[in-house]
Design brief:
Layout lengths: L2 H27 L3 H46 L8 E5 L6 H8 L4 E5 L13 E6 L7 H12 L3 E6 L14 E4 L4 H13 L3 E3 L12
Parallel strand pairs: 1-2, 1-3, 3-4, 4-5, 5-6
Amino acid sequence: MNFGFRYHLASLMAVFLSLILGILIGGALFPDNALVEEQDQLISNLEEYFVQMQEELQLLNTQLTVSDSAWSELRDNLFKSRLMGKTIIMIAENSQDDYLVEMLSLTGAEMKVITSEVLPLVVPDEEVFFLTRLSNEELTTNLLDEINRIVENGGNMVFVWDTTIKPSLQGLPLSLQIDGVDTKIGQIALVLGLLTKGKGHYGMHKESKGLFPL
């Protein structure tokens, strides 16, 4: 069971125990047979409710695990070698994008990772995708200038970010933008966008154009 479910169950248990403690204290302060019977019934109902909630959470956790596995199989099999002959240049300052490199390598594309300092030496090409990971901080002026140069010369620019990131999209050139790239759905959206050379914002965010660039 993942952290979210454990936290939810712990919260339910805390509420459940607090209610029982309150009932017991109330019964000790105000002893009455009718009140005791009513408290016993309330505790019994709470126990049944807690067991039911625990079973439902376990079922939901199982369904999420199966769903995640299904998305992984779909991603790995549907897009295998689909970008053969294409090149993806990832602009990264550190190794945080290792999982994206591994995932995109399944598509058959040639993967290259460069720093922003090398970007001015790169010549744009229609068959090359330039991928930049966005963060909560705005892109530097120099990097944004280089990105605009690439787009103006026919390069395909792609911006991605994780579910925990809220980047500023203002000032970005016409490009493919994928949120939630740390999820299977986001990764599928990314590959579909590369296949179709899509433009616009896609993913699970409420302001996106849709889940997938179809």
